[in-house]
Every structure is written in structure tokens, then in C-alpha cells.
Amino acid sequence: MADLYSQLNVPRGASEADIKKAYRKLAKELHPDKNKDNPKATERFAKVTQAYDILTDKDKRAQYDRGEIDEEGNPRMPFGFGGDGGRGGGFRGPNGEPFEFSGGGEAADISDLFEGLFGRGGGRRGGGGPFGGFGRRSAPPQKGADLAYRLEVPFEDAARLTGQRVTLGGGKTLDIKLPPGVDDGTKIRLAGQGQPGPAGNGDAIVTIGIKPHRFYRREGDNIRLDLPVSIDEAALGSKVRVPTVDGPVMLSIPKGSSSGKVLRLKGKGFTGKNGQRVDQLATLMVDVPDDPELARFLEGWSGRGKGNPRAGLGV
After folding, report:
1. Measuring CA to CA, which of 16, 43, 70, 272 is 20 to 30 A from 248?
2. How would DSSP label each residue in 202-254?
3. For 96-118, how does the pLDDT look when each residue is reduced to its tens digit (9 = 90+)?
4. Angle, CA of 66, 123 and 81, to the nearest 5°
5. What is the location of CATH 2.60.260.20 in the chain?
6. Is the per-residue pLDDT at 127 higher than 80?
7. Which residues, in sequence order, are CB contacts of 178 under 8 Å at separation 6+?
8. What backbone phi and psi angles, to 5 degrees, belong to 240?
9. Could you count the other beta carbons within 10 Å of the beta carbon of residue 169?
10. Where are the beta strands (DSSP E) in 120-186?
11. pLDDT tens per residue, range 43-65
């Protein structure tokens, strides 16, 4: 399998910003919605997404760079036994250096090495040369490799936990449920939807990304909204229509409200991990128009002892 950096067309040592930029470009070209008749593009999309998920995770990237995990995020054989990920066979030490065996003389006795690795005497049960019983027990059958995907979910859908459809390798589509508390980076495991193997299929791991919204923003599980109101609605009090992820609702504006006042719409936020729907918080933003008649009124009103609104600041 190609090196993860090569899959994203970035050099080793690339910054996280460069990796994200490269992934966005490739994802736009290879997304299954644009390549419905091209299964190779869909398969490549899955691979670059898996590469992105590993290289943007600081711990996994460090493990990969040290050679501790492979391109699918699976642990490598200890000390390089069984090959070196396509970079040549042989035994490798804890730091990744190959062990050198000189030829032309006596065969090197490596029994001390294995006694150090596996416990003195423990590797010799059953006899049979310097390896003893090591290597005689066949490894159990392994499941196929997991496959990684990324799914971008609209903000409103994430808040309402609306079911989503994901396209897997080969063009297969599945409907998935979003879990309570879903957030950027939430991973959903689809059992048996990975690569085939002797002990069964691996899984598909879908990483959720929540698209930003043009006027909502998330704060914990609350939804924040800056709500413009006219000066008369704020001064006199009124009922106004307010957008929510579930559709518009009527909200009462108290008389004498100022910019910055926060009003709560219960149960209109995200669903928390406890299954309870949280709230939408609307921050009032009083809109003062450039109106000559209003200006004349305020000029006459300003001398009526309205007080100093900044007195609490000591100025």
C-alpha cells in the first residue's frame, strides 16, 4: 500500500494545514457523489480519507512515522518481523535498523537475542534449534482490514440527529443513525463493512464532520444565534419570528431590552450524550436605523435626565 504522505501528495514533515488543504482538494475530486460510475475513484477516496484521519491525529501520526502502525492504522509486527511494510524483508531492531549478519564465517548465534526478547528459556520449549518453540504456533486467522471514511453532515441534521446515507467502496450505500452528542470527529463503526479476511470482514469507520452554518454556531450542545431586532421591538416589547433548526418559532421580546440580552429557546439545541435536547440561545442585537425623524426625537429626548448608562464602569 502506498505511503500515507504519497496518497495525499504531500511530503513527510508537511504541516497539518498543508495536509488538510491537500485532503480537501482530493476529496472534492474523488467524492463518490461525483464519481458514481467510477469505483476506483470511490476506493481512492476511502484511502485518502484514511490517510487524512491518521495524519491529522498527532498520536497516530507519530506512531506511523516511527513505524509502529501501518497505513491502515493497524499495529506492525514487533521489531519488523515478517518484512518492513514493503521496504525490504529481514529482522529490524527496536529503532528500525536492520540486523546485520556477516557471511563467509560461522553462522551467527542469535539465541541470546531471542532470549532477551521473549525471556530466557521460555522460547526453547519443545527444542528445535536456536529458536526453540518460537514460530511453531501458527497465528490465529485475522479479520480483514478496517476501512476509513469521512462524512460531512449539515449543521441542522446533526442537531436533529437526522439519519444520513454514506457511500462505501464499490458504490455501496448504507443509512446510518447519528448518535446523541455527535460532534466533529465522532466515529461510527459499521460492522462487517471493511475488507474481507480469513476470519471475516473488517469494519468501516465513518468519521463525522459537521458543516459550519451561516448564522448558527455551536457552544457545547447549545446553539447560539445573534438575533437582530428593531429599536421599537426592543424598546416597546414584541413577539418576533426566530429561526431554529426545527423551523421558525415565535419569541417574546421583553419591553426595554438592550443589545446583548440573551433569550432561551428550550429544547432547540443539540441532543447531549444523555439523550436530552439542549437549548438555543438568542442574543439580541438592536438595529438602530439612520432615520432623520428618529434623530430629531432623540435630540429632544437626550436632555430629560436619562442617566448615564456607563456609571457602573466608573466613567
Report:
1. 272
2. --EEEEEEEPP-SSEEEETTEEEEEEEEEHHHHHH-EEEEE--TT--EEEEEP
3. 444 444 444 444 444 444 444 44
4. 30
5. 147-210, 216-301
6. no
7. 153, 157, 158, 161, 162, 163, 164, 188, 208
8. -130, 155
9. 20
10. 147-153, 164-167, 173-176
11. 888 888 889 989 999 989 998 89
pTM equals 0.57
Q: Which CATH superfamily is domain 216-301 in?
A: Urease metallochaperone UreE, N-terminal domain (2.60.260.20)
Between CA 79 and CA 105 the distance in angstroms is 26
Q: Is the dihedral of CA 115, 89, 60, 45 positive or negative?
A: negative
- Looking at the domain 147-210, which fold is it? HSP40/DNAj peptide-binding domain (2.60.260)
Alpha-carbon span 212 to 153, nearest angstrom: 9
61: which strand partners?
none
pLDDT tens profile 156-207: 999 999 999 999 887 889 999 999 999 999 999 999 999 888 888 999 999 9
Give Cα separations from 43 to 38, 200, 246 (angstroms): 9, 20, 36
